[in-house]
Amino acid sequence: MNRKHIGSNVMETIREWEKDPAFKKAVEEHIEKAKLAKMLREIRENEHLTQAQLATKAHVTQSVIARIETGSSRTLPRLDLFNSILHAVGYETLIVARKRGRTVQVALSA
Predict the structure, then answer these.
(1) CATH number, domain at 68?
(2) What is the C-alpha to C-alpha distance for residues 45 and 23, in angstroms, rounded to an integer?
(3) What's the pLDDT tens digit per position in 47-95?
């Protein structure tokens, strides 16, 4: 019986998926959600807050904080929501755009 190593089939499948624009977009969005999740969790922990305490300060439910921190929502968190959560604990949200050595940034208000 001739058996192929399962890893070879998986890698071939991934290479095919990488050619699909929808797959690439989904992977990129997953990575962005993970970055935002990590940022929010680190900020919350640095402020010595539970999810419930942060939610109270930000006037959202604890489940909103949990969904962002775990990346379990289907989409990225809305910018205004993320900004208001950060602002509730004294953080300023900056958007930075860079192109060939040129940087433009704007601070969002709450």
Answers:
(1) 1.10.260.40
(2) 33
(3) 999 999 999 999 999 999 999 999 888 778 899 999 999 999 999 999 9
